[in-house]
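Structure tokens please, single chain.
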Amino acid sequence: MKDISRTAVLFLLIALAPMACSSGGGDGDGDDGGPPYRSFAYVTNWGTSYVSAFSINETTGNLTKLGGSPFTVGSVPTSIAIDPAGTFAFVTNEDSSTISVMTINPVTGALSEAEGSPYATEPYPISSAVHPSGKYLYTLSWGLGQLSAYRIEGPNAGLSQIPGSPYETGMSPQSLAIDPAGRFIYGVNISSNDISAFSIDAATGALTKIPGSPFATGEWPSTIVIDPAGTHLYAAVYTANYVASYAIDQTTGALAELPGSPAPGGSQPCAIAIDPAGKFVYVTNTTNDGNNRTVSGYTVDAVSGVLAEMAGSPFTASWGPDSIAIDRTGKFAYVANNGTGDITGFSIDQTTGRLMPLGGSPFSVVQNPTFITTVRIRQ
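Here you go.
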């Protein structure tokens, strides 16, 4: 089981963070005449105890390594979840079975470990998501097939397990997503070929299994993402080579596959992301035949939610594109390439969704980048 999941850990995705982004409000001027927002990108380095960090130029999209980067976390970090305020980053550490709570400096983006961190979790945590309220953290652990729920408390974002946690999922859970309203949470199970679904008690953070759960997918579903409206869920299905689309029942949270689904994917699609406007979906392709260096792009039908591959797709990245993130403005996309140890940056055509390489791309990373996420913080 563990060997399978060590391979599958490379199938991670950014879209775990809630779409209700950290800044909120309009783009007013900074109090000191500086930028009203600052954006940062954070990347786990597989096989280490580090997270690499970069500032994002909001005009060009280029990445610049932060002073002090990489930052020390637990052993073998696998995912990063950031709270809606952009104050804390929660890092799951697979080999140490812990969660590191890292404070984010809003001006520099630097990470520092919060008092009381790290916190023990179930064996081999692989994916996390923060509730849109910022009050709860949820973590998938592939070792025992469990979903843990924590209350986030105090000035140092201390974690305390919610009564009833952990909850059973399917086999080898890999990717986690919460709907933007914070009503439902979904975990994709790569070995049992399904999606576990739970409703969330807003007052306590406790979970209740949704009737009909788990919901079947194709073989080896690797990652999932929910659109900003909370009406559709998309799953990259690795072995079946497609992207499945589901409607989310707005009352129960149950999933129903859309007519017209699945959409043909590239070869062994693994990581998936959706832009903040919900117009475009992107999936990395990680086939082992030597051509695993592309990203497939899809347009989203505004009414039906059905996907159609966009003109120019697939787009060239680098070898081993394991994760993809879109910045909070929706202007740029970043792909973590484990094979070449770098990040490919793209600008996104706001009309067509087409990806165009950034002038400074690719950007070097310390080692084995496997998961990438971004944050935009109001100053």
